[in-house]
Amino acid sequence: KMAAGEAAGRYRSTMSKSKDPSGLLISVIRTLSTSDDVEDRETEKGRLEEAYEKCDRDLDELIVQHYTELTTAIRTYQSITERITNSRNKIKQVKENLLSCKMLLHCKRDELRKLWIEGIEHKHVLNLLDEIENIKQVPQKLEQCMASKHYLNATDMLVSAVDSLEGPLLQVEGLSDLRLELHSKKMNMHLVLIDELHRHLYIKSTNRVGQRNKEKGRISSLVKDASPVPLMDVTNLSTPRKFLEASQFSTPGSSSMRETSLLEIKEDMELDPEENSTVFMGILIKGLAKLKKIPETVKAIQDRLEQELKQIVKRSTTQVADNGYQRGENQPQENQPR
């Protein structure tokens, strides 16, 4: 009995100190294992059953008291459980959809890359076709530029067309005849430019002096007691050498340097290209440089220098003789110049 009393005391103390059911169960097991009397075990069993029934009664009373809250809680828990389950299913479905989208995007990416490459190829082909169309019009445009003596534009057009025909369009068999034609014209283009350069160097410049002298002669013949016509004034004549010296010795900020710089010379398609002889010769030199024919130009000028100077002397002599003859007819016999 004393042992049973001690076990009951320990049981109550355990119940009061701890709410943990595992600790209570361990305490009951320890009490039953230390008790040797069957009566004590039956007493302990009775107490446990009584406590169990009391718990059931208390639980039933609490359920009756809190039935509404319990029902709401159970329903809420069921709803939350269903939502969690649905969310898991949806997440699983979304994950599967994302995987399928990833695979489709890989396929689309390959298709887009292929379409992008095809677009670049088509754009390149269109550019080549546009270039071919422009090059086909080069002979006609070149003939017009040569006829109007816009040589710099003609040279740029010809050099660009030949570079394209011998570069990106080299494999186009249909342009072989045009390639040969333009290449031949490029090989002979510098001869035309050199002839024009000689014409302005030796003929055009001296013609201006002769015309100026004729005008002076006509004016002096109209004035009474006029003094003999002076020699041709060439001090103010713009020659290529003076053009070079002006551009060589002028300061970088001066207007003459800006006007005479060969790199800044541009061709105006609206104006007469031969209006300014100095600029026209600069354009010719620039065209020859684009054709890479400067050495041939220098050699041609050196070879023809003596011949051209003789022609200048011959033309000048003829002009002087003609002027003297015309003046002699208008003056008395004793004042005729020799």
UniProtKB/TrEMBL annotation:
Regions annotated as coiled coil: 45-97
Organism: Ibidorhyncha struthersii
Keyword Protein transport in annotation: yes
Record keywords: Coiled coil, Exocytosis, Protein transport, Transport
Function: Component of the exocyst complex involved in the docking of exocytic vesicles with fusion sites on the plasma membrane.
Protein name: Exocyst complex component Sec8
Classification via InterPro entries: Sec8/EXOC4, Sec8_exocyst_N, Sec8_M
One GO-annotated biological process of the protein: protein transport
Disordered as annotated region, ranges: 1-21, 316-338
Cellular component annotations (GO), alphabetically ordered: exocyst; growth cone membrane; synapse
Bias-annotated ranges (Polar residues): 328-338
The Exocyst complex component Sec8 middle helical bundle domain, residue ranges: 273-323
Gene name of the record: Exoc4_0
Domain Exocyst complex component Sec8 N-terminal: start-end pairs: 46-144
Assigned protein family: Belongs to the SEC8 family.
